[in-house]
Design goal:
26% of the residues lie in helices and 36% in strands. The two termini are 23 Å apart. It contains four helices and eight strands, in the order E-E-H-H-E-E-E-H-E-H-E-E. A hairpin with a 2-residue loop joins strand 1 and strand 2. The protein is an alpha+beta fold. The site of coenzyme A (COA) has 19 residues, from strand 5, helix 3 and helix 4.
Length: 156
């Protein structure tokens, strides 16, 4: 469990539960031009890397999982967002750190993710966590924007 001071409130990071899904979906819609559907989140309930930041209300979430591979499993950050009013207070960083911990616990040797090349806040967050550019997926997003594929090693 992780606590972060934001204003006078504390924000707790915990596993997502069914009762959180509506709030998660609202933040998703406020954050992305092509949001995931509600049922996509439902499918990941119980996943150790599906976490919410809770300050009395859900103010952010991260969804990460691991896939078996020959050798070590590989982690994937599939989605992360913080409610617009709660950004810039360290919540995204806390969520990402906890998701990385969860993937480590599942023995992942590395973590990958995709990010829009224009998404400066997210790129700043990932760089701060040691992610580096591995490849570019041209036209990855529905509007034609390229995705940068970033990777971080979890050893050491
Ligand atoms: C990306 C996002 C999750 C960051 O959450 P956040 O709670 O605002 O981030 P934090 O306050 O924890 O900041 C952590 C780091 O992110 C980077 N960052 C955050 N906001 C930034 C901004 N507006 N510009 C540049 N870098 C920024 C910085 O490196 C920051 O570290 P610092 O405070 O030491 O400078 C949030 O902006 C968001 O929800 N964006 C919309 C959804 C999205 O794009 N998700 C990523 C999809 S790949």
């Amino acid at each position: 469990m992780t606590t972060t001071a934001t204003d006078d409130r504390s924000v707790r990071t915990r596993e997502a539960a069914r009762a959180d899904l509506l709030a998660v979906f609202r933040i998703e819609k406020a954050s992305f031009p092509q949001p995931w559907p509600y049922r996509a989140f439902e499918r990941f309930l119980g996943e150790p890397g599906f976490l919410v930041a809770d300050s009395g209300e859900v103010v952010g979430y991260v969804l990460a999982d691991t896939t078996p591979k020959s050798g070590r499993p590989i982690g994937h950050v599939k989605d992360i967002a913080v409610a617009p009013f709660a950004r810039g207070q360290g919540i995204g960083a806390t969520l990402l750190a906890r998701a990385i911990d969860a993937m480590r616990e599942q023995k992942a040797g590395s973590v990958r993710l995709e990010v829009r090349e224009s998404n400066e806040p997210a790129l700043g967050l990932y760089r701060r966590f040691g992610f580096t550019h591995r490849t570019t997926s041209p036209g990855y997003y529905a509007d034609g924007e390229d995705a940068l594929v970033l990777v971080r090693d979890l050893d050491g």
